[in-house]
TrEMBL record:
Protein name: Ribose-5-phosphate isomerase A
Species: Buchnera aphidicola (Brevicoryne brassicae)
HAMAP family linked to this entry: Rib_5P_isom_A
Gene3D superfamilies: 3.30.70.260, 3.40.50.1360
Protein role: Catalyzes the reversible conversion of ribose-5-phosphate to ribulose 5-phosphate.
InterPro entries named in the record: NagB/RpiA_transferase-like, Ribose5P_isomerase_typA_subgr, Ribose5P_isomerase_type_A
SUPFAM superfamilies: D-ribose-5-phosphate isomerase (RpiA), lid domain (SSF75445), NagB/RpiA/CoA transferase-like (SSF100950)
EC code(s) of this entry: 5.3.1.6
Family: Belongs to the ribose 5-phosphate isomerase family.
Pathway membership: Carbohydrate degradation; pentose phosphate pathway; D-ribose 5-phosphate from D-ribulose 5-phosphate (non-oxidative stage): step 1/1
């Protein structure tokens, strides 16, 4: 079975967690594309969505799902998103789709973060996937130098301007032994808007699409 089919399975499984009348936090990416399609089938029972990117806003509206402005909310019941990598502690690398800052804001606001992935995203240690870092453009050389100091190889992601008007550095080959510490360290560099390590605020539930069906991980327990 190809990975797209597994993404789709995980996306549809997320519908089981949605309560009537809810406002759903919606992530960004190809897995979320399938989730938005699934969500459209129950749009009459939800109140609407808040979105982590202009792309997802467009897709949600196209499906007739009302999108609210995040600035009017201080908390949310549920956030559904995917990840580029997720470890067994449910900590993630995100930002392959350049939406990491808005994704992190929604993740922080949500009581429950449900991560939907195909099985290829599960890793023992984070860092094989280059770590995305959204930065203010003028900080490019400075932040790149600091990433080299901690052992990474920074590459400016070409032709990408984020929805917030910033740029992305992808840090290759970082040895991420302590994801929470690394998240704090990179976030504290002047010029960094957000690092794509979701370690302090990790997922609460992971739905993994596999050939045999959905594997659910909740608080480090496989169900
Ligand atoms: C976007 C993200 C995505 O969740 C991540 O890149 C996974 O995407 P996909 O579902 O396309 O594999 O963090 O910024």
């Amino acid at each position: 079975m190809n990975l797209d089919k597994l993404k789709k399975k995980a996306a549809w499984a997320a519908l089981d967690y949605i309560r009537p009348g809810a406002i759903i936090g919606v992530g960004t990416g190809t897995t979320i594309f399938y989730f938005i399609q699934a969500l459209s089938t129950i749009k009459s029972i939800i109140h609407g969505a808040v979105s982590s990117s202009n792309t997802s806003t467009f897709l949600l509206k196209k499906q007739g799902i009302q999108v609210f402005n995040l600035k009017n909310f201080s908390s949310l019941t549920i956030y559904i998103d995917s990840a580029d990598e997720i470890n067994h502690q449910m900590q993630m690398i995100k930002g392959g789709g350049a939406a990491l800052t808005r994704e992190k804001i929604i993740a922080a606001m949500a009581k429950q973060f449900i991560c939907i992935v195909d099985k290829s995203k599960i890793v023992d240690a984070l860092g094989k996937f280059p770590l995305p870092i959204e930065i203010i453009p003028m900080a490019l050389s400075y932040v790149s130098k600091e990433i080299i100091k901690i052992g990474g190889e920074p590459k400016h992601r070409k032709n990408i301007i984020t929805d917030n008007g910033n740029i992305i550095i992808d840090a290759y080959n970082l040895c991420i032994k302590d994801p929470i510490l690394m998240e704090k360290k990179i976030n504290s560099l002047p010029g960094v808007v957000t690092v794509g390590l979701f370690a302090s605020r990790r997922a609460d539930i992971v739905l993994i699409g596999t050939k045999k069906g959905i594997r659910t991980i909740k608080q480090n327990k496989i169900i």
